[in-house]
Amino acid sequence: MAENLIVDKNKSDEEIYTEILPQIKSLINSNEPIISNLSNFTAALKEAFDKISWIGFYLLKDDDLYLGPFQGKTACTNIKVGSGVCGTSALKRETIIVENVDEFPGHIACDAGSKSEIVVPIINNNKLFGVLDLDSYQYSAFSNIDKKYLEEISGYLSEKLNWDNFILY
Ligand code: SME
User: I want to staple 142 with a disulfide (CB 3.0 to 4.6 A). Which of 2, 63, 146, 160 is the partner?
Assistant: First the structure.
């Protein structure tokens, strides 16, 4: 399925999430490869929010996170678990909101224009598969509203997709 996302960008972030959530869920097809689903997902979310400068997945293999499907400028391909915002979120298995990336010790700057960030872990059956990373050129672009809905979406991706059969390479 490839349909246009219907989104009113004059609405609040919470209203936008409410509007796009069912559309995003309908994009996810568990019979198709994880990479295809994650790719379309990043495109949909980037289209919905002008505040997102970069969105993408970093997927876990051993103790490293590797760049997965994304939308935006080219990015770092490999982040160690425990490094940067992504690696810290993976290590702690919790969402991290960074209002000013310059104030996060060890932040990895893939794009010098990036000012704030949110990273949400993808966990299925207690197993970590990677993280979802969103960046913005605005300071404090992401709030607990984003956390709430991105965690819901990440939970949906964890449940719906067949992660047990997923092999990064
Ligand atoms: N800033 C991230 C690195 C990934 S890029 O933002 C795309 C970090 O510190 O982990």
Answer: 146
The answer to whether 28 and 41 are in contact (CB under 8 A) is yes
Report CA(99)–ligand 1 centroid distance (Å). Answer: 13
Average confidence score pLDDT of the chain:
95
**Is residue 148, in this structure, part of any structural domain at all?**
yes
pTM exceeds 0.85: yes
Question: The domain spanning residue 51 has which CATH number?
Answer: 3.30.450.40
Does any domain span residue 110?
yes
Going from the C-alpha of 143 to that of each of 63, 104, 127, the distances in angstroms are 29, 16, 26
- How many angstroms is it from 83 CA to the middle of ligand 1? 9
Nearest CA to ligand 1 atom 2: 108
Judge whether 3 lies within some domain.
no
For residue range 98-156, what is the model confidence (pLDDT) as tens digits?
999 999 999 999 999 999 999 999 998 899 999 999 999 999 999 999 999 999 999 99
Domain count, the chain: 1
Report the nearest-CA residue for atom 6 of ligand 1.
110
pLDDT at 80 over 70: yes
- As to burial, measured by CB atoms within 10 angstroms (0-12 exposed, 13-18 middle, 19+ buried), residue 129 is buried
Q: What's the gap in Å between 153 CA and the centre of ligand 1?
A: 20
